[in-house]
Amino acid sequence: MNCARCLLRLQSVGFLAPSVRAAVQHAALLQPATALSQITVHNTRGQALRRFHGSPGCYKSQPVPTDPGEEHEDIIKKDKSLITHDDLFERVAREAKTKATFNRVVDVFSKRDIRRRGHVEFIYAALKKMPEFGVERDLTVYNKLLDVFPKEVFVPRNFIQRMFNHYPRQQECGVQLLEQMENYGIMPNVESKVLIVQIFGNKSHPMRKYQRIMYWFPKFKHANPFPVPLQLPEDPVDLARLSLNRIANDLDAKVTVYQMPCTDISESGEEITFPHVVGIQSPDQMELLAKHNPNRPVFVEGPFPLWLRKICVYYYILRADPLPPEEKVEESYDPERCFDYPLQLDLDLDRDMGDDDSFDVEDVDEGPVFAMCMTSQGDQATLNQWISGLQETNPTLGRVPTLFRLEAGPRELQGVADPGPGYREEGEEEAETDIVVEEEHQRSQGVKQ
Amino acid sequence: MNINRLIALSKSVQFGKILTSNARHATKEVTLPNRTIRTHARNLAYAKDLFLGKVNKAECFPYPEIGNEELEEINSFVAPVEKFFTEEVDSKRIDHEAKIPPETLNGLKELGLFGIQVPEEYGGLGLSNTMYARLGEIISLDGSIAVTLAAHQAIGLKGILIAGSEEQKAKYLPKLASGEHVAAFCLTEPGSGSDAASIQTKATLSEDRKTYLLNGSKIWISNGGFADLMTVFARTEVVGEDGVKKDKITAFIVERAFGGITSGKPEDKLGIRGSNTCEVSFDNCPVPVENVIGEVGGGFKVAMNILNSGRFSMGSAGSGMIKKLIEMTAEYAGSRKQFGKNLSEFGMIQEKFAVMAQNAFVMESMAYLTAGMMDRPGVPDCSLEAAMVKVFSSEGGWICVSEALQVLGGLGYTKNYPYERYLRDCRILLIFEGTNEILRMYIALTGMQYAGKILTGKIKEMKKGNVGVALEMLGRKLGDALGRKVDLGLTGMDGVVHPGLADSAKKLEQNVAHFGSTVENLLYRYGKTIVEEQLILKRVADVLINLYAMTAVLSRSSRSISIGLRNHDHEVLLANTFCTDAFFKNNYWLTQLQRNSPENQDENIKKIAREVLEKRTYVCSHPLDRTF
């Protein structure tokens, strides 16, 4: 079988020439920098081919050009290629798991062996390790990984190769890489495309995968009419502002900050932290509240969760029970309402069935929601502050009995260690503590100011 | 047969003369002689009957005329006014300084233009609606003056004229007619224009029950800065029949001398800059109870009547303006050379003049037809017709001024020529005295209410599945489909339209019949919920306006041919052109009205608007944006 492939290879050298040139031109157009280095390789065509398929022994003896300062090189060199590449990452990860170290590992692997032996295993291992290094959403890293594949070798050269699955393991690996990009929502770019064409050719499986991603991703990019920003604001007040606007979905609604978060030192030397209280109310809600019957109570309810990407925040609402049917006042038609035209016709005819486009919707009577708020501390004292702030703009609220119906919901979720910010991150404990520390930092800054 | 028709025509023309000359006397004299002729027809109105697919030809044919004496009288009024406006009024200066100079105002007063419609016994000119319209043609040459005068007498003092008591008339009208006092009409409040619920100004009765105390503020009051007398609408507490206290609107005559009145800074406006528009506030302004117009709590009707009666003159005003513009631009087009040819030789320029001439002709015809109908004895309700005149002429005026400016190209855009001023001035016509949108609602809904009252029984029968009614309907539809000729009696034996216009008259008849069946269909489909269907109502109003316009031009040119007026063949040409044009437009709209909302684009239009308004911004992403 090996013989046959060698024969085939020899025959195809003649055919390859134009295709190599085309690929080089293509690359030169798109990436002038990388193209230059590749041209030097391809100019010595026969050599390049021999390098990939020659005896591994003779190359192994050649010293691989390396930087003298790379101590990892030695570690890796001692390894036999059969050992898992996880170790490679593990060893590097001992100091720090960053993009730089990840890149270094990839560089080391690429430079170690010109044939890139074991690159499939290496790429699988790298894909697995990406989230650990925090580079799972980094397009350049994916492109760098793609670059690990040797070029030109897996491109089918005749119809039989094209017909059958040429280098299936490698192709599958390429697809897997794209699949991971897809799962993290990373869209490949032109560089990825050029690499795939160079590695697997124009009609390979990875190329198909690439094309499918490029077909669907742009279509889905704006499918969500209410996009959550990628970078959520870190300041709890800004975050509350964003979340409240998101829930209210009313362009007229106005956000009011009733209290900024700050810490104060009381006379007895105790540190008192004041939580932030941010509320939202629209003019329509104010009107509803003004019309509210003062004999009926209003309720402060909560906390209700709202998820924003990986953050969960809690909000509280001020609401009333729906009006009982006997108290509903039908607004009667006043014929002296409009100076210019009749607002209603005095006719005994209704809309014909054929022109009745309305759906039969069963209306469930729900009580009106008058306002919403977010705070980091959902106790009654804090919420009272919100209600008294609301009273300034809604004088009726002073005459209406206000009942607090609070649940202990978020407290349980927050856990024991959490000092009690209004939100927490699920899953990533480190990130959470980071934010808590930051918040403390901000608070102390607030005191200083 | 032709001879017969001619005799019939000349007879009816003759009759029209008698009728209108009687009308002229009727307005002057308290006793109405010769009222026996056809007074029973007064409750009939032309436009409302169109909704039933009927042409009430007695109302609009023959075209109303005025007698020779009146003609001479009005011409004697017109000549000095025209002279004054061409020689003494400096419109450019008025526009620039945003003020009408006192000497110009004094000139207007001397000409008696502050009391055109005030009866002679109170010192006014006592002119009929027709003659008022004639003067309006000239007054409209300066927008600021026209608006100042209109605010004074078309709405400002109209309340006293139509609903005031004898004492009120005797006390106030002489000074108003002479221009010693200027009037203003204070209705609009910051809330909104047409919504009576937004009126917050309060009038509270004092303890001695002799004066009302007015509190509140009014906005956009024309003449508000200097008016000595105002018709003010305010809420008063009225005990209803059921003993419940209710806030109702009452109209008051308020003198500035009563005290407690302050005027705000004049608004800086786009056009009609010389007219004074400002806010007027009342702070405990005492008004004696005898200054209530009509009865307490009856202000709503007073306001409606004033608003409805003030609109008809806009047609003649618009046509007066366009006629002037035609003269000015025609001179330019005849002298300016391009590529060795005069502008007037280019087809696209010619089209603009045709549009202007046609619009002026139609406006004029509608305005004088309506004025003539209003001048007839009895208390004719021509508010629908007046609203149609207002909508048609304000929109036509805007188009014509824009076309006139276009003839001059870049020159028209500069302040060296008056076109930009006309353009700015005439934009207000689409807005004030009820915006055109609101008037379209009024036009369509008033007619729908009228037709609905009559057709309810029939439609109910049909919905119940009465075979007879359904068959009758089916037969009629089949007849229409097979091309049965509609004959509503405009032509033929008892025809009122001249044979030279028979084709156009047939088109009108066809449209009217089609309109009638469409209205019936709409009532069947929507019933009283048609109030919510504004896009449908807009088309209904547009068709009706065109039908009325067609009637007006047919009636006018028939008369012109019959009595051999100068250049009547040009009128026939204009009338036929307009009728053909309107016929096609009407057919298009009527076809749309027969369709359901997905088919006539209404659904799409509403959806587009909804999506834009939800986001309150233009929704599409930029054409240069990309996703990858």
Question: Any overview of this molecule?
Answer:
The complex is a heterodimer of chains A (449) and B (628). Helices cover 49% and strands 12% of the residues of chain A. Chain A contains 18 helices and nine strands. Chain A has helices at residues 2-30, 32-43, 45-53, 56-60, 71-78, 86-93, 99-112, 119-133, 139-146, 159-163, 168-183, 190-200, 205-221, 236-248, 283-290, 380-393, 409-414, 429-448, and strands at residues 254-259, 262-265, 271-274, 277-281, 298-308, 311-320, 369-375, 402-406, 423-425. In chain A, strands 1, 4, 5, 6, 7, 8 and 9 form a seven-stranded mixed beta sheet that branches. In chain A, strands 2-3 form a two-stranded antiparallel sheet. In chain A, a hairpin with a 2-residue loop joins strand 5 (298-308) and strand 6 (311-320). In chain A, helix 7 runs antiparallel to helix 8 and helix 8 (119-133) runs parallel beside helix 11 (168-183). The longest helix of chain A has 29 residues, at 2-30. Mean pLDDT of chain A is 76; it is low at 6-82 and 412-449. Chain B has 22 helices and ten strands. Chain B is of the alpha+beta class and 628 residues long. Chain B has helices at 2-28, 46-50, 57-60, 68-87, 91-97, 102-110, 129-139, 143-156, 158-163, 166-178, 299-309, 313-335, 347-375, 383-408, 410-413, 419-427, 436-464, 467-481, 502-526, 534-563, 568-594, 602-615, and strands spanning 183-186, 202-205, 211-222, 229-239, 245-255, 261-263, 277-288, 292-293, 337-338, 341-342. Chain B is 57% helix and 10% strand. In chain B, the strands form three sheets. Chain B has a four-stranded mixed beta sheet with strand order 1-4-5-8. Chain B has a four-stranded antiparallel beta sheet with strand order 2-3-7-6, with helices on one face. The longest helix of chain B is centred in the C-terminal third of the chain and has 30 residues, at 534-563. The termini of chain B are far apart. Residues 1-42 of chain B have low confidence and may be disordered. Chain A binds chain B through residues 187, 189, 214, 217-218, 221-222, 251, 334, 336-352, 354-355, 357, and chain B through 187, 193-197, 248-249, 300, 303-304, 307, 434, 438-439, 441-442, 445-446, 448-449, 452-453, 456, 459-460, 463, 523-531, 596-597, 616, 621, 627-628. Chain B: Its cofactor is FAD. Chain B: This is Complex I assembly factor ACAD9, mitochondrial. Chain B: Residues 72-180 form the Acyl-CoA dehydrogenase/oxidase N-terminal domain. Chain B: InterPro entries: ACAD9/ACADV-like_C, Acyl-CoA_DH_CS, Acyl-CoA_Oxase/DH_mid-dom, Acyl-CoA_Oxase/DH_mid-dom_sf, AcylCo_DH-like_C, AcylCo_DH/oxidase_C, AcylCoA_DH/ox_N, AcylCoA_DH/ox_N_sf. Chain B: It is found in: Mitochondrion inner membrane.
